[in-house]
Amino acid sequence: MTALAGDPLQESKALQGRLLVLLAGVFWSLAGLFLRAMDSAGDWQVVFYRSLTLVVFLALVLAFRDGRRLPQTLSAAGWTPVLAGFFLSFAFVCFVTSMTRTTVANTLFLLSAAPFLAAFLGWIFLREGVRRATWVAMAVAMLGVGVMVGDGLARGAPLGDLLALGAALAFALFTVTLRRKPGADMLPTTVYAGLFAMLWSGPAALATGQGLAVSTHDLLLCIALGVVQMGCGLIAYIVGARHLGAAECTLLSLSEVVLGPIWVWWVFSEVPASMTLAGGGILLAALAGNALSGLRRRRPPLGAV
Known about the structure:
305 residues; mainly alpha; disordered C terminus
């Protein structure tokens, strides 16, 4: 149903949606801050405990929301959320391991290429049409990615940038998988993602000698990552996105990419390199331009996710 101009109720819902999606980006932007505050926890330990906390938190939310209908909710969704969760778990792993190997700015800027990768993969696998403006934006975004990856090579830290691109690709595959079943419930998908991420990170932590023993300080930060940064961010985004179009959601969630480097610069004096800022600026301009062109094209329908 399209929002009627001047309808106070619909305008109020749209405003609430914008605030919630913006808030989701703020929650997500805290990842680098929490990770930089860790004392000694390794990347695989962080992935494991963040995923464990996320699973417990979202399972409680689902149980509160669905009650006795929870088993039916999980079974009715079919295999699509499971496969989507599988891809999302790789994004979880690549995201954290990238941040431990490069700057927060590099990770977040490169991760913001995910919408363009999703558009490209949707065009290939789902035969979804891609607007001319999006093709142009993708070309510009690739220029920004090239500048940032080249900077990573020059600094001798290419692995972190490649992992960030891996996170973007995994998130794009997650998005395309969900498009096969529009309207799929995101919360069960994220629970599956957390479970898969635990399956990857637990054995990896043991195999690499990190083990699963962490300090109380680091464990509390992992819990904050699972509940506040990821869990609360997802809930705010899912609820807010119901009242907005995809272009507006993309634009508002850029708060994560903008605020993330600012937090770690403010608290830990981690200053992004000039080439990182240049490439990130090009990528953000492409993303914002594509979203704004989508907003100008037509007013987004209410209820779009």
